[in-house]
Amino acid sequence: DSVQLYINNNLSVNENLDANFTASNNFITSTLNNIGNIKDLQQNNDCSIFIISSNNTNDLKSKGVFSCYAYWSPDGNPNINNSTPFTQLGANIVENYSFFGNKCDIAKKSNIDTSSGDYKTFNYDITVAVGSGGLVDIGTYPSFINIYKFNYNSNNNTSGVVYNQENSPTHIDGNWDLIGEIKHTNVGSQDGFGTDFKLNNDGTIIYVGSCNENCIYIFKYDSTASNTVDAWPLVNKIQGFKSGDTAIGYRIACNFNKNIFATSSNDYINTRDISKVTSNEPNKIRIYEIDYNN
Questions:
Q1: 8 A C-beta contact, residue 268 and residue 134
Q2: Cα(90)–Cα(104) distance, rounded to whole angstroms?
Q3: What is the pTM of this model?
Q4: What is the pLDDT of residues 249-267, one digit of tens each?
Q5: How far is CA 126 from CA 48, 51, 61, 132, 133, in A?
Q6: How far is CA 112 from CA 122, 155, 172, 278, in A?
Q7: Which residues pair with 66 in a beta bridge?
């Protein structure tokens, strides 16, 4: 699969609703990094970083892969009209877990700032989550979500970029450090845990839908934890209670600037294939206000 980039040529603040998008560069991701068929694509607030994931890579030795691309240049002056305005950020995250890459998300205020012009000291803060999308491999892997944080290699002496044997740049030098592992078995949940999930703006809280249980789990990052499993303790749980609230958490949308999130319901019970979801109840959308003081 490939990702098509579109550029809005109408940048007037007063006329920003009158968009004029034109196609720009085509990212042939299957050729570049064996990502296979893209299952999910997400971006940060200003679209300077986007992420893609797949659970069926072209590499037969692995089952899932995740890639991240950033609007970046070593001189601090990236140009959206260049042939390659986005550069892969770190190498692929590749896992041999069943259904890894079905869903992904990025903290919306993730950022990368090279305006200093010094590729060794640029500022960045990028947190992502990749999961199975609520699916389980019975007897092998539970429903899960892994959370990663990018760590740039500031000791790189080749303009911050890794080159291959043909002397072509492949990705910005750095690692994706695993900072969290959330599994449905660890919280006593059911399969269907993680049908959808959303990180908050700074990547320290994650909302996880569990539509088979008709609820949403909320976890908060604890940087002092001794391991990645304990680093995201459960801090709250929103339980659907009305008869019409069948399978809330099926999809989640958030506006953390306004402290609001919404969730849609659907009947995900007794099927592992979300494309075959049926419901006897009308689908609902519930909207919640977040109270950080309670």
A1: yes
A2: 16
A3: 0.85
A4: 889 999 888 889 899 877 5
A5: 11, 11, 28, 21, 21
A6: 8, 18, 12, 42
A7: 53, 93
